[in-house]
Amino acid sequence: MVTNTKISAFSLDDFEARTGSATSIIRTITGLYLRHQSASVPRTQVVELATAAGVPATTAQTAISRLIDKQVLDSDSPSTLCVPSPAQAMFERGSRRIFTPRQMSQASQWCLVAYSLPEALRPLRHQIRKHFQQLGGGLVAAGLWIFPEYLHEEVEAVLVALQARAQATIFTVQEPHFPTTAKEAASQWWDLDHLNSLHRQFLEATADLAEDQTQPAEAYRGYVSMIDAWRALPYLDPGLPESMLPDSWSGRQSRDRFLALSQVFKDPAQQFVTSVLGS
């Protein structure tokens, strides 16, 4: 089992949490707002932010305790909360990915990762597979993964954290020569049906949000729910070029919707949070 503490920030990522659950909502609030506070935040204020996002107070208290257990939050006193360093690193990395969704062009380069591990290191194989999938990697064959080149640094960071960098070779290539067509290759290397389903779920989850919801409290609730529904997608979806995507791909519409609503909700939502936290 890998024990390197460098992997802790990656291990805190949670892409299996149910969107809209109390724990998921408060995790989103933590990433959006609490991690930017210079001092610990009163627990009562965190509960107030949670209730404003639609989480009942008693449920919020339970969810906060769960996030403390998961080391996403830390209780440095019975009445205050802060964000520990590994969670800060996780949220910082996530912020770059979530708020700047990227899309490959035909001219974009690719990153290939090849490695060979003995049977004795099977747990390490599992860890690599888990984290590579969560980075949006495509599995070409056993021990061979493909990513957009713009994920190169994140791929290398995972290998270093897992103490597997010495077993892996990373290639940067301009154009793979696909065995059949680019679309067929993409459908084999990535689970595009699942990704498309996630995009449709995001569109359904945000269907009731409107760009005229600009009152601070209303914008805050909409913004938190939208980010909560979106935050896993920019990880799991690598942003493949149009030529590799099916005609029914929902990612185009969900990305446009995310960007449009973000522009409307962000500032008034921040006004509401400032009124609660006082900073």
TrEMBL record:
Pfam families listed in its UniProt record: PaaX_C, PaaX_M
The record places domain Transcriptional repressor PaaX-like central Cas2-like at 108-181
**Signal peptide position in this chain?**
none
InterPro entries, sorted: PaaX-like_central, PaaX_C, PaaX_trns_reg, WH-like_DNA-bd_sf
Q: Which residues form the Transcriptional repressor PaaX-like C-terminal domain?
A: 190-274
Which processes are annotated in GO (biological process)? DNA-templated transcription
- Identification of the protein by name: PaaX family transcriptional regulator C-terminal domain-containing protein
Q: Which organism is it from?
A: Glutamicibacter ectropisis
